[in-house]
Structure formats: C-alpha cells, structure tokens
Amino acid sequence: MNHSIYTADKATHLKVVVAGLFAGIAIVATTLTVHLVQPELSFQKAKTLAVYQARPMHALTEMAQR
C-alpha cells in the first residue's frame, strides 16, 4: 500500500476514484430516497413581505429625502 500521494500507482488511483464514485452514488441515492418518501420536505414556501406604505422614520427614507 502506498502511504504517499506522490508515490501512488495506478491501482491506488483507481481505488480512490472508485471509492469517490461509490460515495457519490450513495449520497444521490439517499437524497432521492428521502425526496420520494417525504416530498413535503422539499416544497417549503418562502415567506414574502408586502410593503404597503413607506416608513417615514426609516433611515434610508430619510437619506433619500435629503
């Protein structure tokens, strides 16, 4: 086994690539499973605020009026 990244041969490189590939597949599979089992978690509504009138005491409003 190679203990240095500088002396790694093709077999070690292949092992690292395969391990990364399996980790990526596991993450995608877990994400899809959670998404399909509990779809209500992925559809969270964003909160929106409506502004109906300007606030005269607000600092930006005061700076804009000068």
Q: How is this structure best described in words?
A:
With 66 residues, this protein is mostly helical. The chain has one domain (10-65). It is 53% helix and 0% strand. It contains two helices and no strands. The chain has helices at residues 10-37, 59-65. The longest helix has 28 residues, at 10-37. It is elongated and about 70 Å long. It starts with 9 loop residues before the first helix and ends with a helix. The model has no long low-confidence stretch (mean pLDDT 77).
Key descriptive features of the protein:
66 residues, mainly alpha, elongated
Number of strands: 0
Q: What proportion strand?
A: under 5%
Order of helices and strands: HH
Cα-based radius of gyration, to the nearest Å = 27 Å
Which regions are unreliable across 5 or more consecutive residues at pLDDT < 50? none
Separation of the first and last Cα atoms: 73 Å
For the biggest sheet, the summary is: none
Number of helices: 2
Structural class: mainly alpha
Share of residues in helices: 40-55%
* Average residue pLDDT: 77
Which word captures the global form?
elongated
Number of domains: 1
Question: How would you summarize what this structure contains?
Answer:
The chain has 66 residues and is mostly helical.
Topology (elements, then pairings):
Blueprint: H1 10-37, H2 59-65
